[in-house]
Amino acid sequence: MNKKISQDKVVYFINYILLALLLVIELYPLIYIVSCSFSSGDALMAGRVRFLPVAPTLDSYKAVFEYSSIWVGYSNSLLYTLVGTFISITLTLFAAYPLSRDDFKGKKILMGIFLFTMMFSGGLIPSYLLVKNLGLIDTMWAIILPGSVSAYNVIVARTYFKQTIPKELLEAAQMDGCEDFKFFKSIVIPLSTPIIAVLCLWTAVGIWNSYFNPMIYINDEAKFPLQLVLRRILLLSQVNLSKGNVDPMVIQKNMYLSEMLKYGTIIISTLPLMIIYPFIQKYFVKGVMVGSVKG
Amino acid sequence: MKNTESSLKRFGQYALRHWQLYLMVSLPVIVLFIFAYAPMYGVILAFKNYQVSKGIWGSPWAENCGMNNFIRFFNNYNFKECLGNTLILSFYSMLVSIPTAILLALSLNYAKNLRFRKTVQMVSYCPYFISTVVFVGIINLLMDTRIGVIGKFVYEKFGVSVLGSAGLFPSLYVWSGVWQGVGFGSIIYIAALAGVDMEQHEAAIIDGATLLQRIKYVDIPAILPTVVIMLILNMGSVLNIGYEKVLAMQNQNNVSASEVITTYAYKVSLVSTFPDYSYSTAIGLFQSLIGLVLILVTNKIADKLTGNGFL
Fold this sequence. Notes:
Number of strands of chain B: 0
Number of helices of chain B: 15
Helix content of chain A: over 70%
Strand content of chain B: under 5%
Largest sheet of chain A: none
Largest sheet of chain B: none
Number of domains of chain A: 2
Strand content of chain A: under 5%
Largest interface: A-B, 95 and 98 residues
Oligomer: heterodimer
CATH class of chain B: Mainly Alpha
CATH superfamily of the largest domain in chain A: MetI-like
Structural class of chain A: mainly alpha
Radius of gyration of chain A: 25 Å
Order of helices and strands of chain B: HHHHHHHHHHHHHHH
Distance between the termini of chain B: 32 Å
CATH architecture of the largest domain in chain A: Orthogonal Bundle
Radius of gyration of chain B: 25 Å
Number of strands of chain A: 0
Shape of chain B: flat
Distance between the termini of chain A: 46 Å
Order of helices and strands of chain A: HHHHHHHHHHHHHH
Shape of chain A: globular
CATH superfamily of chain B: MetI-like
Number of helices of chain A: 14
Structural class of chain B: mainly alpha
CATH topology of the largest domain in chain A: MetI-like fold
């Protein structure tokens, strides 16, 4: 018996060490990037930053603030995310509520129509040609509409409605002659704010972070969302600072700046999510749990 | 006959009384028909030789009874490489990400210090919200042989460039994925563990079971249904791995390990100077069909074995 208890103690202890190790592994890259963003160009290019900022400056942030396409991207992304989230959530709830009603006739067929889209899709080119033929290229609708109805989100919302809206409430409302849409608007929606919050966050993060669809549908730089601007800076290293300047000193300085710009943009673009993250974290967790209940 | 007539009549009455419900559901259904089902009709492109001037329907059928695009793909020297890379990345990813998420969930479940536990949870969910572009940007900066802290170290110690090595690509892809997703992936197992009957644990303690034995005989069987569901969901997308991340991580040096089916289909159509839409559609259709078959088969097997089918 004693031996077993001491074995458990060892296991608990190792467990703590492993978790602490994980904490370090998860945090280190983040801290490193933050430190780099505050370090001087010389220290960065020599690879001297290990953990804390070396020769601290705000130069990378200055570069970010002076780089106008980032801010164009920022405001575009904000617009696309707001409009896209609103449309997507409205459509999702419109689909989920009727499908959650036990008395709704035609539920099976309609549910099948939604479920099938989770298992099979037309693929890249047919979708691309469709968007092109509809004349949506270079408009925000190309980013927003194709993914606006997600069967997965519909199932999550439907499950939530089924679990939380009491049948008696509907019966009582119907006795009083309340129509379906009015019931949906004034009873179902107010009772479902937690799940609506979760779906809004999922959708908003999804649109804010997406880059593939914008990349194939948006060619006009003035309409680039933030992720496409970031792609240029971070992945393609296409930064336009020199503006035809041939002075070697300036070119050297700009080479440093374009490297520093990368760290600054990473921080600036991720900051909004990281600030609201602690507040929304518990909703995300809740959403995953509702989603895990069988549809 | 009379039966169907009366049920149709009943349906009519119901629909008339609840027309608002049908109006509501019709909006998302219309959107789905336009943006999900219309492209499905577009897959006939795979059996044609698409010519922009003639449109989808007017283009001539492909050779070999319309199967020419598929035959070309299967005979292409890229086919084996793409399929192999896709399978390696997705199975490697699945084999690592599911067990690590379960391990983290178990670890957190037995961390008694609540504050520490919450901290670990919060920090480990955090990277999940970083976008693909920024995430790959971070990898590139960390692994750079000249200025990146890890890349420089590896380069000086072993003489390998992490970003430039095709051999390291699968591991870089999978383990960076673990870094980003393990916390979020563990949520579902934490939820499953929270549902484990405490009485079973108490009984096991009285019987003198150690912690590891309790995990093995009480916890693991309890979360098995969840694992099965996650496995099925993963199986459906075996050929459809996170191509956004693969595409973003791709460079000339690792392309032999990072060219997957989706990125190949993208390159021959939307990037190429001679876009071949029909060929790309055929590749996409091949991928979708395999995905559909895999999800149905795994579901059937899971249903037979454990009674935990998903659909």
